[in-house]
Design goal:
Blueprint: H1 10-17, H2 32-48, H3 50-62, H4 73-108, E1 113-116, E2 120-123, H5 124-131, H6 134-142, H7 152-164, H8 178-194
Antiparallel strand pairs: 1-2
Amino acid sequence: MAVPARALEPAESENSARGGPGKVRTPGPTSRAFWLIAYGLTISAILLRLPTLYETVRRQLQNSDMADKVPDKSMEALAVNVGLLLAVFLSMLLLAVFYSLAAVVERHVLTMRRRVGRERGFGLGFVVALLCTFPVHLVSSALDVSSPKTTGWYYLYVLLVAAIAPVLFRTHWAGLGQRKIITTYAFAVGLAGLSLAI
């Protein structure tokens, strides 16, 4: 007489579908919420710089040849405000493109992750992108610097971010070949270099 096959219990079926009980899930790419928070923080830091940027643009306009062609002070203020508005929109657009590109690079190349909580985490691309944008604009706002690109410390800082950020994920280097580590550093430097355009 044939022995009937034992039906799987619901708990067993669920565990089988999940790959077995006790399986540890590795964190996926940086969540969209983290990227949106980073984007909001960086835009806020850019907006904090507007008073300094306004005075800088107004001073440059007064010292230029265009000052004599705009005798009306209200028209001068309007021109400065429109210029700053366009600059902010351009910065928002460039930042969105940069963060989107960083997310793609992180998903396919910079695949190292750090866990936050049980299943969430952030990746190397997120760390490089955030450190190369938000602190720069925040410090520029605090120090009343119109453009961080006027000092060599800014470029040194970006280079240090690209060099140090991968070290924060050194626990994930086990089993990686030298070629993979070099590729990681190369993309980290390239991603940090792209932040100079923002």
